[in-house]
Each structure stands twice: as structure tokens, then as C-alpha cells.
Amino acid sequence: MKLLGIGGTAVLALSAICSAQQGYFPAPSAPAGNPVTQAKALLGMALFWEEQMSSSNTVACGTCHVFSTGGVAPHATQNVNPGPDGQFGTADDVRGSVGVPASDSSGRYTGSASFGIRPQVTTRKAPSVINAAYQPTLFYDGRATNGSFADPVSNIVILTGDVALENLIKGPPVNEVEMGHVGRSWPEVAAKIAQARPLALASNLPPRLSAFVGTASTYNELFVAAFGANASATPANIIMAIATYLRTLVSDQTPYDRYLAGQGTLTAAELNGLQLFSNQQGTAAACMQCHGDLQTMSHSFGPSPMFLTPYGGQNAPNSHNVGVRPVAEDTGVGGITQAPVDMGRFRAPGLRNTALHGEWFHNGAMATLDDVVAFYDRGGDFHQNQATEIQPRGLSATQRGDIVKFLQTLTDSRVATEQMPFDRPRLGSEAGLAPQRFGTGSVGTGGRAPEAVALEPFSIDTGRSTLAVRNVRPNTMAFMMWDTDAVAQGYSFGG
Fold it and tell me: Global pTM?
């Protein structure tokens, strides 16, 4: 591979990286005002894995989109949202994605009703970003779309065309559950990033990313490399760089793709599963009818939902109420359109790498692919406003197992093992940069023991960190003591 020098940094030649990415799909489209360049993609890569993008320095975009789990959040027992009833351990609980503690602009934890001063969890599990560049609508409710992208500060349209990715990225950094404090704005995000030392909290940077970051002391140096002289970390440039990186996350080198191209074979069970997936069973629509990303034509047009199932008299967007939970718990697309026919509808996700996910559906309700197939075999669980194409299928245990075997052929080994273009740095949260708690508090007059909460890394790069204590009475006097030596059993102070 050839190294090209750009703005004092080094990047891999575009032709080399593209040859590593592309297999059977055409390259995804990009708006004319945000063409894909290698420097911009590497800047977007750095920003995507940058925990300093969040208010608490604990969450990067990549925190909820880990490649080894198929581009979704890794399974974790603490990633539970109590759902609409606000009670943990009930049927409406959601397996969401971990976010930040509720806080104000000063970094003080303000607490939330469900999570207190602990990290919050989203009300939907984050969909995969892999192959997202081919989708005309993003988020489960389809609220990020192609068409036009407006600068998040001026609200002036600056891009048109295939801009669903740009519209997707606008949300999370300023969302007070996902990455931001209450009332966070894009100018605040940009100001913080502009002066941050790139990936100061990360480690094990892939060679191509390490070469690009080089010795840059602030992100502004990298924006010059990616966007040209006098460029800086503006909100629009941050968003366009991350979108460019996401357009390089193309997964098309699966056993199924090799089979489609006539360059590989599937077992008899996998072929039977493909046939069952592709054909209508009784009154139920073929699975392939909603998951058009698996059609043979994907090698010509990319894994977009080309073949859409009519629903409520409409062919688009490719969203359906399959009957996962009662409509009132999450209105899905209906929450955006306010149309009764849309209530409970969610966008059909792409299925490549689905076997890596560990949890399925927008609420993470299914724990195995076998559970998913059994769900569709019985025609879903809740039928209010349910899509008419979701019907019982009457499959045998062998048939269900064969469908699972077929779904397992959709895994790209580069994704599973995080090889280029799915290589990535190690996050600070994965490396245990947050302070480690030890010792226990003594039970006080309220009957509860105080508990220290230390989530944020202590680093000269981040400017500040917050320590908190839970299980204490309001307005209680507090002390903070520092010691150069850790006392593993804790230290008694005033009883």
C-alpha cells in the first residue's frame, strides 16, 4: 500500500482501501457537496470512535455500534430501560444502548427518574450502521431521510440528495440520553472537539488511523488535512466527516454473497433455509419481501430495500408493525407521521451480520435467532394494527433450524474479526480508564450505604471529571480526600 502525505499526516491511498472494502456491491452514493475522500473518511473514523464527543467523555458513536457484534451495541445486562411503565423487571422493559448520566452543562449529575445518577439507557436498541449508506431512511422510525441536509446551526440547506447519513448523525451528540447534557448544542460539541487531542482516551489505534492522526495536538489540524486550508471543526464538517466514514463500512463479503456471485456454495440445509426465506408460506409474505437487501439484485444496486411490501396502501417506507409489543408502548413511524396506519411500524433492518447481534428487534426482546424465527412462525405476538403480511407459517422445527442456518451465512468475517474496513481503536471505557471503586460505605441513619459513582476518566486531556455519591440524604455535608496510596479495604472517616 502506498502512503500519501496530507497536511502533515499520512493516509493510505484511496485505491488501496477501496479495494479492501468493495467486493460485490457498488459503492454507496454520496451527496455532491460531501464526496468521499480518504482523509475525510479517516477523520470521520477518528470522530466516530472519539469518546470526547460526549459530554461525559464516556460514550463514542462506536460505543453503541461495535463491529464484532454486527454494528450494534454489545449485549450487557445493565443496558436495560424500564419501558413505558417506568418499572424494571416487567414485560415492557427494553434492551437498549448505554448512554450518559443525566447532567447539566457544568458536568453536575442531575439524576433521572429511572436511572438516578447512573448512565441512562435508550428506549430502543441502536440499529447497525454497517451498510447504512445504502438505506434511504434511517433510525427505526425512519426520521432521518434522503432529500436535504441543513446545517445544524444556521438551519440553511447545504447538501441535497443521499443525505440520510448526515441527518442521522445530527441527533446523538446533542441527545441528553445518548451523548449530551441537558440542552447541549452543536456549537458546544464543535468547540470541545476543536481543541481536543485526537483519540486521547483511546488505545491500539489501527495503523491507518494512527498514521493519519500522527502527532496532531488538536482536531483542527486534522480538519485542515481533510477539508483543506482554513477548515476547522465546525458542526457541519464534523457531521460530513462521520458520514463519509460510514459510507466506507460496506459489508458484502459473506458466504451468501459469494454464493450469489457463483463463487461459493451453500449446504443443503442453508439452501433450504434460503428457499423458505424467499418463498411465501401459506398466507404469510416471504421474508425476502421485506428484507429486500438480500435480493439477488443487491449486487447490482446495493443492499437497499428495493422490493417493498405494500402496507396500508403504501409501498414506502419499508416499515412494518410485526407485532413485537403493543402499539401504545412505542408508536414507531407513527410517532413521526402521526398517521394511524403508521402506529407501531418500524423500519425493516438489513440482515447482513445479523447472527452477530446477540439481541434482536428494536427493543432487544429476542435473545437468539431461533427465537426470532419462532416469533415469525407464530405470526407475531401482538396484533393491533399488525401488518397483514405477518401470519402464522406452520414451519417444522427442521425448517426453522434451516432458516437460522441460512441467516448465519450472512456474516462477513471482516466484521466478526474487526478487520479493515472494520478495524477500530480500543475505547477508553473498554480499557477501564474510569476510576476503580473499592471498599464500601457504612449504612447510615437512612438505612442505606453511600456508594461512590466514578464513571468518567481522570485525564488532563478532558478538562474535568465528575465524582458523585448515591444513597445519601439531600444537603448532607460531604468530604473529598485524596491519597497517593489506594487502601483496598477502604478508610474509616468519622464512622
Answer: 0.92
